[in-house]
Design goal:
With about 80 residues, this protein is α+β, with helices and mostly antiparallel strands. It has one domain: 2-Layer Sandwich (Histidine-containing Protein, Chain: A). About 40% of the residues lie in helices and about 25% in strands. The chain contains 3 helices and 4 strands; from the N terminus they run βαββαβα. The chain has a 4-stranded antiparallel sheet with strand order 1-4-2-3.
């Protein structure tokens, strides 16, 4: 399992539109992706799970990636977060 932390810079945090993009990116990476915040964990492939975290601007999340090709998948997820969140 590989993890990284990311501080959200999107003005309104993780709202519906970027959460939808995140779920698509997580599904495409082919690994299990978990986003953690405030003591809660969310399956990144499930929109409602991501939205239930209530992540706002400047909040720091932990992203865990597990599975085959996790090196490539974690790089893809880091790039996604930097470009979209």
């Amino acid at each position: 399992m590989r993890t990284f932390q990311y501080k959200i810079t999107e003005e309104v945090g993780i709202h519906a539109r970027p959460a939808g993009r995140l779920t698509r990116a997580a599904k495409e990476c082919g690994c299990k992706v978990i986003v953690s915040f405030g003591g809660k964990n969310a399956d990144a492939t499930k929109l409602n799970d991501i939205m239930s975290l209530g992540v706002g601007c400047f909040d720091e999340v932990t992203v865990s990636v597990e599975g085959e090709n996790e090196e490539k998948a974690v790089a893809e997820m880091e790039e996604f977060f930097e470009e979209n969140l």
